Amino acid sequence: MIQVLIIEDDPMVAKFNGIYLESIPGFMVAGFAKNVAEGRKFLELSKVDLILLDVYMKGPTGLDLLKELRKEGDSLDVILITAANDKESVQQALRYGAVDYLIKPFTFERFQNALLQFKKQYHLMNQHEKISQDEIDNLLQTIDRKKSEAIELPKGLTKTTFTRIAKQIIGRQGTIFSTAELAEDVGISSVSTRKYLHYLVEHKLIDSHIVYQGTGRPLTNYQLFPEKADILQSLLKN
């Protein structure tokens, strides 16, 4: 479980952030602190993997704490959750290595996306000694960045058909399927289906591999891995 410290001076906000957090699998509230001093004391006594940190508090601010941690060489991950929406606060948070920055009031979906993206990063960094370029690229392509991108389909492809195909693929995540199988379920020709599959492969949203059969032409199979499903799903909302 990822242990999270919530540093927030509003008890009600802290409570709801804790409820939100523990509704997401893999996360647990390690503790609460209402100011920087309490937060520092908690960090000295307990293991913490992530801080959900407010900026505006009595005494030192959340940004002060973030700066202190970095100057001490502490790489503890931090997500800012704050009403501070001025450019300077955002720039300072990013400059000192904040994982994400959520401006109050935020939606649960945005909160959940931030935590899931962190979870992906956390497991990648803790389970591998070496990390591939593809893994880094996938990690840096956050859910919200993908959401902000409009689908720009090449000539001859329509968004309506793309949506139908994408929904079918999302339902097949983790399983292998062929062009013919997908075309039959979508209700269009294999030739048309293959064009959309090529588009998805080019954009690294699905994987493909060739199976060499005993006779006849080689067969291309496709697969959507779970970590790509949320990205593909987000494209359907644009």
Q: What characteristic shape results from the CA principal axes?
A: elongated
DSSP strand count = 8
**Model regions low in confidence, pLDDT < 50 over at least 5 residues:** 142-150
Biggest sheet: strands side by side, in what order?
2-1-3-4-5
Report on this structure.
The chain is an alpha/beta fold. It has two domains: 2-140, Rossmann fold; 159-235, Winged helix-like DNA-binding domain superfamily/Winged helix DNA-binding domain (Arc Repressor Mutant, subunit A, Orthogonal Bundle). 50% of the residues lie in helices and 17% in strands. The protein has eleven helices and eight strands. The chain has a five-stranded parallel beta sheet, sandwiched between helices. A three-stranded antiparallel beta sheet has the order 6-8-7. Helix 3 links the parallel strand 3 (50-53) and strand 4 (77-82). Helix 8 (159-171) crosses helix 9 and helix 9 packs across helix 10. The longest helix is centred in the middle third of the chain and has 20 residues, at 108-127. The radius of gyration is 22 Å and the shape is elongated. It starts with a strand and ends with a helix. The model is unreliable at 142-150 (pLDDT under 50).
